[in-house]
Amino acid sequence: MGDxxxxxxxxxxxxKKFKTPLNxxxxxLLIDLNSLLYDIRPSSKETLEQNFAWPIEVFGTERSIxxxxxxxxxxxxxxxxEVLNNKTNSLMDLVYLVDKDWWLSPAVNSKxxxxxxxxxxxxxxxLITTLLALWExxxxxxxxxxxxxxxxxxxxxxxxxxxxxxxxxxxxxxxxLHSPFWAEHLLPNLTPSQKDFRLASLAVWRILxxxxxxxxxxxxxxxxxxxxxxxxxxxxxxxxxxMNLDSAYELQKVLHTYRSDxxxxxxxxxxxxxxxxxxxxxxxxxxxxxxxxxxxEQASFWLQIEKEFENKxxxxxxxxxRLNGNNPDFVFDVISAPTSVDIxxxxxxxxxxxxxxxxxxxxxxxxxxxxxxxxxFVTRAIEHALVEIQTPNVGFTTTQGTFEARWTFPAAVNxxxxxMMTVRxxxxxxxxxxxxxxxxxxxxxxxxxxxxxASIEIGWVVENADGLR
Length: 469
Prior knowledge:
single chain, 469 residues, alpha+beta, Phosphorylase Kinase, domain 1, Transferase(Phosphotransferase), domain 1, 4-stranded antiparallel sheet, 3-stranded antiparallel sheet, 14 strands, 37% helix
């Protein structure tokens, strides 16, 4: 508990001052939680900062934290509520979403908000997606009280988690928090992580059932969840019973099948602006437009590059990241992304050259001035890099008088921008040679059927912006 006031230096944040300074153990837990933001993917950091009242900054000492800086809940999380003819502007906590009976009380003068099933589905998908970002990082939330989960309908239905300073980066630490009305009698002997999974499934169950007292083991659950399909009910119950990440991913997947394209497309557009491929692929419309389909394909390709980076280790990982980690449309959404360097600076060039980072030099070939004394060594580096590129697989289609050659340029190596076809006779003499500009797949290269042709070779060629090969 503590006192809250608006940060005088940044009105988008609050300062929470604890009534008494935290002890050494609690201070360490909070410092570890704050540090977690710097040990996870940028997309996960964005999710935690946006959807949790996360401790962005801590004040005090390592052994005695006195205050924290947290995000301020936006106005769309509040609305006017009238009780006993008294109007107040209240945060919309989960009670207002799951307790239909509260709105029917004679003391409540306000009308219950008209919230559609599609909006409730979006609440649930957002809740599970947000918690997955936390769970994937190895942390847990723990404090599932109705006051700590607030909701907004705009710009899309979403949940925000308050009191995130009680979350822990250590998912084995149990704060033994009590959450009234959260079926605590159904949480016997569970680990902290298992409690998080079970309470998350309970939140989804009640948001869809609009009943504060039901739970997935309730034999009368169909009375509350008869508006959704059996696959969704099964997925919620599976998270309730299995209490693991796999069942959480499955629930997220099933919830997506019930989502409205209106919300999906809006969130896809937001993810595109942020540049997170992982977020974008969580919001694939059921009936995407042509532009959305193109972008989803680009995001899928970028995600594969990120996964390839994560599968590498040591210098190979650093080299791969520097070579492939720059994209104007996407953030390189990995932990510990390598720092980009200006390869045209002599000291950086020679470090890369000595370390055999020839592809990195080739990728940046157009940044070197033609008058630079490094150009001969750039050429040598590109020659070395070409040796490492996979030999093209050439296919042929023959007709009576000609045959057509076709091949594919290496997709992940965009600095290879030309191919050279060399035709030789049986003695190895070159009969013809031709340069072809890059296309994803080069086809329609027709040659006459000549009995003197013994071999056809395809080799990669690199040309810089000034025409130097």
